[in-house]
Design goal:
single chain, mainly beta, 4-stranded antiparallel beta sheet, globular
C-alpha cells in the first residue's frame, strides 16, 4: 500500500520518492494543493516508530502527544531503533540525519536544529529511549518551523528520511491545544 503525504519537492530526490500529480488523487485533496508537491512514499519505504516528546531519563514515554499553538523552543522526536530480537533490526546509526524532516505538510517541514556531522553532537543524541536495547536517535525541531499557529484539533505529523537501507517514514497524530 502506498501512502500519500506532502513533502518539499527538494526532499523527493533525497528520499527516493517519486512525484505524482494531485489530479490523480481524491478531488477534495487535489483541489487544496499545488501540482508536484505530493510525494508517494515508495512501496519499499520502511515504516518505523517515533516517540514524540519522549520522557528522557525514564523508560516511559510522556504518554500524550499534545502541542500548544503557542509553543516556542524545540520539539523533541526520537526515531526508535529496532533490535534483532524484535524482528527486522533498524540501526539509527545508518540514518542520514541531514535528509530527515518532520512536519505536517510541505509548507511546514522542519529540518533538525543540530548539524550531526560532528561525532560528539551525534553521540549526545543517541539514547535508548524505549529501553529495548537498541539506540534511538533524538531530533530537535524548532516549534516555530512547524506552523502551529493556525492548527487545531488532531493533526498528523510525519518524520521522513533516508538510511543506508533505504527511505523510511513514521507518522503520529498530535493534538493541538490552545
Amino acid at each position: 500500500m502506498r501512502r500519500m503525504m506532502l513533502v518539499p519537492v527538494a526532499l523527493l530526490a533525497l528520499v527516493g520518492c517519486e512525484q505524482s500529480s494531485p489530479v490523480a488523487l481524491d478531488s477534495t485533496v487535489a483541489g487544496s494543493v499545488e501540482a508536484g508537491l505530493f510525494a508517494t512514499i515508495p512501496d519499499d519505504a520502511r515504516e518505523l516508530t517515533i516517540d514524540f516528546k519522549p520522557a528522557l531519563g525514564s523508560d516511559e514515554s510522556m504518554g500524550y502527544d499534545v502541542l500548544s499553538r503557542k509553543k516556542r523552543g524545540t520539539v523533541t522526536v526520537a526515531l526508535l531503533g529496532v533490535p534483532e530480537a524484535e524482528g527486522e533490526p533498524f540501526d539509527v546509526m545508518t540514518v542520514d540525519a541531514s535528509a530527515v524532516v518532520f512536519g505536517q505538510d510541505e509548507a511546514f517541514m522542519a529540518s533538525p536544529k543540530h548539524d550531526f556531522s560532528g561525532e560528539d553532537v551525534l553521540i549526545e543524541h543517541l539514547l535508548d529511549v524505549d529501553g529495548n536495547g537498541a539506540l534511538d536517535l533524538l531530533f530537535h525541531f524548532a516549534a516555530t518551523d512547524l506552523g502551529l499557529g493556525g492548527l487545531s484539533g488532531t493533526v498528523e505529523f510525519c518524520l521522513v528520511g533516508e538510511a543506508t537501507s533505504g527511505p523510511f517514514f513514521s507518522c503520529i497524530d498530535v493534538k493541538i491545544a490552545g
